[in-house]
Structure formats: C-alpha cells, structure tokens
Amino acid sequence: MATKTQTVDVKAQFTGLSKDEILRYSRHLIMPEVGMDGQLKLKNSKVLLIGTGGLGAPLGLYLAAAGVGKLGLVDFDVVDSTNLQRQVTFGAQDVGTPKTLAAKNRLSSLNSDIEIRTYETKLESSNALELFKDYDFIVDGTDNFPTRYLVNDACILLGKQNVYGSIFRFEGQVTVFGAPDGPCYRCLYPEPPPPGLVPSCAEGGVLGVLPGIVGSIQAMETIKLIIGRGDSLAGRLLLFDALGMKFRELKLRKNPDCPVCGKNPTITKLIDYYEFCGVRGEEAPASNVQVPEITPRELKSRLDRGDDLFILDVREPHEYQICNLNGHLIPLGDLTRRVHELDSSKEIVAHCRSGKRSADAVDFLRKSGFRKILNLKGGILAWSDEVDPSVPKY
Amino acid sequence: MPVKVIIPTPLRVFAAKRDSAEFPAETVGEALGKLTVEFVELRKHLYTDEGKLRSFVNVYLNDEDIRYLGKEETPTKDGDIVSIVPSIAGGRS
Question: Which residues of B touch A (CB under 8 A)?
Fold first, then answer.
C-alpha cells in the first residue's frame, strides 16, 4: 500500500494532478480511453452551461464530478418548489435562492478542486459573445426558442461547439452542433415555430427523469469532446422516447445555404432573437388573441349574486382532477368536436390553468357565433390567488 | 405493408393521442396528406395556408431528411418509416 502511494506521488509531480485528485479520478485514470491524458484535458477544460434547470442539473453534477476545471453557470431564475421534481441539484432549502448560487453551492461541495463561475443574468445578444469567449464548449440546456437560436448563432460566430439537448413531456432530442464541417441548429430548423402553434401549457409538463437522461447524454458528449474520444453526436440527432423506451437516430446534414454556417452567411452578428421568434417580453405567449375577460373577483361576486353562468373548463381531465371550479370539462383539443354541448344563449365563462388556452377557446367560440362568452383572466391560478386560496396551484 | 408515420409528442394532441399511423402511400407527401385527412387538426401544424410544409417541421424518411431526398415527392416503399420531427425547446424549466 505504501509503495503504491509512493508511485502515485511521483507520477503526480509530472502530471499536475494532486494525490487527492488522482484518488478521486482513479476510475477515469485506469481507463485507457481517459487515462492521465484525458483527465488533464478535463482539468484544463472550460465548459459553459446555459441553464441550470432540468438539463443543467445532471450536466453540472456529472461535469463537476468528472473534474472539468472550470464550469460557468448562466441562469437568471430562482429555485421554486416545482423545480424539485426534476432539478436534482437543488434541495428544499434552496427554494427562493438564485439557481446559479444554489447550483454553485451544491457543485462546490461535490468538488472543491474546480472553479465555478456564476452568471446570474439572462443570456442576451448583448452579452452572449463576451460570456462564451472564455469557454471551450457551450452546453445548451435552455427552455425557449429565442435562446436556442442565440446560443447557436453565438457558437457559430465564435467557432465553438454546442452540446444541444431539449425535452418535451417524455421525448428528448440530443446532438452536437457547430462541429467543424458539422451542421448547426439552423441547418436543422431554419426558423422557429410561430408562438402559439406548438402546444405549450395545454400539453406541457415533463417526466422528471427525462431531463436527467437527456442531460446525462449531453454530459457524456461534452466529456467525449473534451478528451477527444469516441464518435460525437455531431451530424446525428438522437431522439429519445421515454414512454416507448426507444432511441432513434436521424442524420443531420450541414445546409450549404444555412444563413449562419453556410457558404455565404447572411447572419454575421447576433440579432434580436425575440423578434426573430416572433415574441416580445419574457415568455412566449401561448396565445396572442384578445378576448373579453372577467376577473376572478368579478366572477365570484356574480356567482354569489346567483347569476346564471355556465363555467367551461378547457383543461385536460388529469388537470381537472387536481382542482376545478365545478365547471363543464371540454379539453381545448376536443372543443371543435364537442361544441354542441354548449348553449350559446347562456352566458359562458371559460377557464383553464392560466388563461391562455381558454383565450383560444373563447376566440374560437366567438368565431363560431357565441356572443356571451368571457375568459377568466389568469385562470384557476388567479382564482386561487384572488378568491379561494384552498384551490391548489400547479 | 404500408408506410408508418410517427407522430411526435407535441402533435399527438391533434392526432387523437396516437403515436403513429399507417397508410398505403407511394410518396412521403401522400402519406402526410392521408395523415392530415385522418387528423384534420394536424394540417395547420404541418402545412402553411399555401399548402407548403412548415419550415420548423422536419420530415424524415427512415433516417434521412427529405429535404436532401426528393422532398415530398420522395418515393416510399412498404415498411418505410416517415418521422415528423418538430423543434422542441424545453429543458431549463
């Protein structure tokens, strides 16, 4: 045993890994695919994580554990209790704490030998290039289209690879964009979907383990890129269906006419990505429609008054089970088919969780000839806030 | 054996929650056309008002992007798999 330690010590002098580090990373060091060479590459590498949420959790944990020398964490959000179902870097004690700070605390306790830089800021066209330039690899774990395009373009402009992962309910996509001669995000998707066309809160949600799996694949790809081993996912889109437990792989090709990485790029600096994605403000609105509204308090006083109002709930049955206002349930997706269940001579108040889906329902019903229909402003969430706090929020 | 069209999670709500559907079809376009006849709600998510495939919806025949094959005219054979791959953005939250 003593001899073994002695040998290790001698080796450490030549390698830049301390005795403690050699012990910590021994399962890497004894693998020829990583070895001392790979571990030193990890130690000297700098990785920037965009987002410290569902994907960022396993990414941060595994990259810190693997000994990536410098980890940058970009997030402007604060931990809330709905995050804990999947964002496993955080504990209940972190609720209310900025995510970058909570993540830094967790990752530092896991590995105090590495440097962790936090950027408690929203990634913008004005700061992306400056943030990215000090890092070797960028890992995209964001949750919205404007930031996806921003990360892509900034990576291409700086010649950096982008380890991409995205999830939706129980489906994930992973690849590596911006490899030399490899495709970028715009080669795959030249344009984002217009706001509202891709289902959002109506079909939202995510199975908690899914970001764990997708983020772990991103972490694996990042480590392979750093140590220069194996075949990266560049040029391949890995699709993961958690319900069917199936992985599929599609070919990704570099588009010679790509506006950012093609032969004659038309995008040579960062643009306004909110405008590009057709959204303004913090969140992409699920709906842009303007419809007549009623506030929760108005609704309550009218109900108390005994007004004959028909409450239409356009959420999904599983949401109805969580909480409801005793309304008539017709999920938005079934409304066209089941519109005959509604009496247009009656006054109707439509609601959903936050008021977006029901705005679409009201818009549709008005176009179908319903005149006495109102949208419950802020949905059942606002009802819980303003009228009845015993109604659980989700 | 007909062509199988795989419906991605975000679009299943417009396709009676189905994850796939099979149609006899000679081309990718024909398979997608039959899909949007069976599930009318899907149409506006896949095609523009002018009847063009939307740019954020990628269609693959087996593992190849139809943009690099014959687009919607790409011929299909029995047992082929047509995948609709829309962009999804989730991850952080």
Answer: 8-10, 13-14, 19, 41, 44-45, 54-56, 58, 60, 63-65, 68, 83, 85-93
Q: Distance of CA B88 to CAs A113, A143, A215, A317, Å?
A: 36, 9, 15, 24
In this structure, are residues B27 and B75 in contact, taking their beta carbons and an 8 Å threshold? Answer: yes
| pTM listed for this prediction | 0.82
Contacts of A136 (CB under 8 A, 6+ apart): A45, A46, A47, A160, A226
Among A residues 169-198, those touching chain B with beta carbons less than 8 Å apart:
169-171, 173, 188-193, 197-198
Q: Which domains does chain B have, with CATH numbers?
A: 3-86 (3.10.20.30)
- Chain B residues with beta carbon closer than 8 angstroms to that of A55: 91-92
A282 near A124, Cβ under 8 Å?
no
- A142 contacts B92? CB cut-off 8 A: yes
Domains of chain A and CATH, by start: 45-276 (3.40.50.720), 293-386 (3.40.250.10)
With CA atoms as reference, report the closest residue to A312 among A358, A363, A354: A358
Residues of A in contact with B90 (CB under 8 A): 54, 143, 166-168, 206
Q: Do B91 and A142 touch (CB under 8 A)?
A: yes
**Binary contact (B87, A189; C-beta < 8 A):** yes
Instruction: Tell me which residues of chain A, numbers 18 to 47, contact chain B at a CB-CB cutoff of 8 Å.
Output: none
Residue located via tokens 């954020």: B56
How confident is the prediction along chain A (394 residues), in pLDDT tens digits per residue? Answer: 444 444 444 444 445 899 999 999 999 999 999 999 999 999 999 999 999 999 999 999 999 999 999 999 999 999 999 999 999 999 999 999 999 999 999 999 999 999 999 999 999 999 999 999 999 999 999 888 899 999 999 999 999 999 999 998 888 999 999 999 999 999 999 888 776 666 544 446 788 999 999 999 999 999 999 999 999 999 999 999 998 899 999 999 999 999 999 999 999 999 999 888 876 434 444 445 789 999 999 999 999 999 999 999 999 999 999 999 999 999 998 898 899 999 999 999 999 999 999 999 999 999 889 999 999 999 999 999 999 999 999 9
Q: Which residue of A has its CA nearest to B61?
A: A250
Quick check: B82 and B34 in contact, CB under 8 A? Answer: no
Q: Which residues of A are catalytic?
A: 201, 352
ipTM given for this complex: 0.88
